[in-house]
Amino acid sequence: MTPAEPSFSVLSGAAGSPVILHVPHSAREIPAQVRAGIVLDDGALERELDHITDAHTERIAAEAAELSAVAPWRFVNRLSRLVVDPERFPDEREEMRAVGMGAVYTRTTHQEVLRPAEVDAEPLVERYFRPYAKAVTDAVADRLAAVGRAVVIDVHSYPTEPLPYELHGEGPRPPVCLGTDSFHTPPGLLAAARTAFAGIGETGLDSPFAGTYVPLEYYGTEPRVSALMVEIRRDTYMSEPGGPAGPGVSRLASALAELVDAVSG
């Protein structure tokens, strides 16, 4: 194989900003050599991308960055999560492996076959997952060196109605779900998020999705790295599944910018 092109972009913010807006699931791009290993026909693949992609979240993060008094840094995945999902554990620690959706998916959102179950995931992990993980680690290290702390805010979205792959889809589905970690989500960060998103509607906690993304090098050991996952219910800003964005994008960008500014000082 030829060397892979970078599958992500690191977009600079203010030198003094501790905030990294991480946008891992907004893209639909699948390289041809990866597409060849997916068994869905083109129509079925487009429908799956409609369901699995966190559409327009890159735009929300970009508009928030423009509105922020102290511009955050942005780390954006340029490839679909159907290539690799950078937020999964690449091994048996990942609970989503139970539904064929570990770091390399073998099942779709509706639990149909995406790749053969016996696929060797290691080439995709080596080519895409590990370089991505290293780059996020480096981005966090850069903020720690520059300002002494890092705040990773994950920007996601989720469908209004649960999909068959969801392990915890029976819980509440508020307009904004805040995913937390007992070590990396301090009370002040959570309170700032609740305040910032109050105008969008109810903010829930860890339902239907829970947890945060922290590079493993820092996970559970570095208190200067804080993290929060922001999961936005898609009917607040777009037509589902996979449709155009609506006026909710601007409201969400303003709310996200308010959160960025609250935790930047």
Write the layout of secondary structure elements.
Elements: E1 8-11, E2 19-23, H1 32-35, H2 42-52, H3 57-67, E3 73-77, H4 122-147, E4 150-158, E5 176-179, H5 187-196, E6 203-205, E7 225-233, H6 248-264
Parallel strand pairs: 2-3, 2-4, 4-7, 5-6
Antiparallel strand pairs: 1-3, 5-7
Helix pairs in contact: 3-6, 5-6
Word description of this protein:
The chain is an alpha/beta fold and 265 residues long. The protein has one domain: Aminopeptidase (3-Layer(aba) Sandwich). The chain is 30% helix and 15% strand. The chain is built from six helices and seven strands. The protein has helices at 32-35, 42-52, 57-67, 122-147, 187-196, 248-264; strands spanning 8-11, 19-23, 73-77, 150-158, 176-179, 203-205, 225-233. It has a seven-stranded mixed beta sheet. Helix 5 packs antiparallel against helix 6 (248-264). It is globular, with a radius of gyration of 17 Å.
Under CATH, the homologous superfamily reads Zn-dependent exopeptidases
Rg (CA only) = 17 Å
Structural class per helix/strand content? alpha/beta
What is the count of structural domains? 1
Number of helices: 6
CATH architecture: 3-Layer(aba) Sandwich
Return residue spans where pLDDT drops below 50 for at least 5 consecutive residues.
none
Query: How many strands appear in the DSSP assignment?
Result: 7
The coarse silhouette is: globular
